[in-house]
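Final report, closing paragraph on structural work. Over the funding period we assembled a curated collection of sequence-structure pairs, and we close with a single example.
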Amino acid sequence: MHQLCLTNDLMLKNKVLLRLLVYLIPFVLIAQTSPYDMVYQMGRGINLGNVFSAPELGNWAAAAEEQYFIDVAAAGFTNVRIPIDFFGTRTTGDTSGYSSSAGTALNYTGTTADYVVSSAYLDRIQEVVNWSLNQGLVTIIDFHGLTLKSEFIYTFDSGKAESTHPTSAKRAADNEKFRAIWTQIASRFKNHSENLLFEVINEPYFHMSKTDMDTLNIDILSIIRNSGGINGTRNVIITGGTSASHEAPLQIEPSIISSDSYLIATFHYYQPFNFTSSSADSRDNESWGTNADKNTLSTRFDEVFAWASSNDIPVFLGEFGADNTGGYNYSTGDLNAISSNATGFADGGPDNVSRLEYHRYIAEQAINRGFSFAAWDAGPKSNKTIHMRSDNPSAVNYNIASFSVNTYDPKNTNKSTVLDNSTWVEDVKNALLSSGTWPQCYGPNPDPIIRNPDFECGYNSGWSLNVSSGSIATMSESGPTDAYNGNTAAKIVVATNTGYNKVLLENNVFTNDLNGKTIVLNCFAKSEDVTSFRFQIKTIYASGATNYLTSPVLNLQTEYSAHEYTFDLTEPTTSIQVKALCGKQAGTYYFDDFKTTVTDTESLSIAKVEFENSMSLYPNPSLHFLIVKLLSIEKSIKIIRIIDLNGRLLEEYRPRLVNYFKINTNKFANGMYLLQITASDNKVLRPKKIIIAK
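Its predicted structure, as stored:
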């Protein structure tokens, strides 16, 4: 182990060194992508709606073609959700003959062997999934379906004719069928890329209770996790049971989340329904976008965000959208349905300005909160169109511009006769791709180990305060005045102190084998009082043993100072947890901008040798010029970068593979900078400080 505590004034400004380490020293973990990193990779996406969930392929929408996924990736989307129905003739075993009455479960005589998914159907799904993965798209298999609703989900809904008693034979049969299908899905795709995600079930919350969904989630997760391959750590998307879609994830039992490290929560958003489905006869709200409209949406998204933060789980907005402008059907050149607006004319759907703003605003609000999304699109045959499915030779689309409506009663329209060969409904596509900014704690380069390292997503998102043995302490947000960077830091007030390890600032548990890795842990910290703290990494070894790796005492000042400690992990691990121990002295502590870098222990030592022995800088401090020289005759200089202490790249030189280069420093102001070299073998040497003093 090595210790380096950096507390001088220059290091206070040298924050860029900590930020650059993540790419100056390669991150070499080979591990399953965490749910947060996966949600960031998912980003903005689209649904392949009405294709596999139709009773017959090609019925509701044209059959899938490979070009579709090429189009989606080329446009800039990064995920595709594929809704699929495995019920009906696609799976053997008819459950309709079993009693729906209470107390008849013993009459169920079937077995899991009765429910066999068509291998041809699985082959077709696999083909389409592979097309998507081959384009670099995160791909979601969503257990969706039409017959799924009536054959399974509706049996839980007392308001439906299909409702069955929980102790009935029909319920037992349907439960076994659903689980048998998931067993076969998990088995078929167990060795597929980690960029394939499973979604347990689509929209159960209008029909299934919290208890029912908790049970289903537990059962299906058990099936997936025990199915082999990489399914033990594959990211799985879950939701809960309730009556409103945005409330669904809030109903998930917290113990389900805490017991599985690879879960993503999901919800859908189609509110207000009178607008999003305004092509229906019974709905005629064709405008949206007032401040009140937006405030309602933002409030509901905030509810989901607050819940997700407190439960340490990322979020996927799996569906949203509004009907086509005028209710237009690109496949027929006519209205889907007719509604009456204020003028008495038929337009059968939202006005275009409102439709665009609805898609834009939802995309913005989702991305701003770190939610990935997949907008609902069911192709040109549907009432919600984004991709025109011109990839399929059976799709013939018409141009909306040549369509017109004459009167409302009776319906009198002029259908479009002009063909439209567009790939996208461009304005909607652009609205989805151009709005929103990822919050700092979600990317674009998330910390490899620490969740929410700079507290910008809230002091309690990914962090908790563990107080024990008579100590009294609280944690809150600092506000921007007491933050080292950004808008907030963690503020910890220790009122009663009993020992370092009695007040612990703890991050989320990071689950991976880090054997043979070196972890460099950094943060910025200060105190209003005379206090100190210690870094600690709690390590769970593969043997089952627990160990606590702890730094020496690190003293705090009244102004922020940088602190660093290096930990070497020499045994196989199942998980680690980063902590800061601050219970030795009473007082007020502030922590901000944690950072970890992970390398192979051996490669880190090599980097250190090269840092010390392979590069020479003189004169340093520099008056007018600086000589950069590599001492190794086996290597030459490929790239030289000068970086200021705020992380900005000031100059980049490409000296054509020499081992000697002279830099004119007159153009730089007096002060300290970082110089970083990429050698001819593409190895990036650790940065070295230079001082300009004219």
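The two ends are 39 Å apart (CA to CA). The longest strand covers residues 587-600. We thank the funder for supporting this effort.
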